[in-house]
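Most newcomers find our protein records easier to grasp once they have seen one. A learned vocabulary of local backbone shapes supplies the integers on the structure line. Here is such a record, shown just as it appears in the course material:
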Amino acid sequence: MIALSKEIQQAIKDAQEEPVRLVDPETDAEYVVVPIETFERMRKGVYYDDGPLTEEERRYILIQAGLRAGWDDPEMDVYNDMVPGRDDESSTR
């Protein structure tokens, strides 16, 4: 285990519960310092899960995308009444 330098200790204090970002000046690689409790929760998937999306998660993402696209606008309700594949006026109510 490596002890923290005074500079990093001060950065952690100044961050006030936020992760501290570090950069390796030789490689420009970036690192994040977080408390061990936070790291363990992240590792166990409390914050991050790289598994496949569930059907519920997919549905939520699609609904949110539709809302951002304006599909909740009352003027778009006309599309709810359309019957796909019909060209005549009977395709709307």
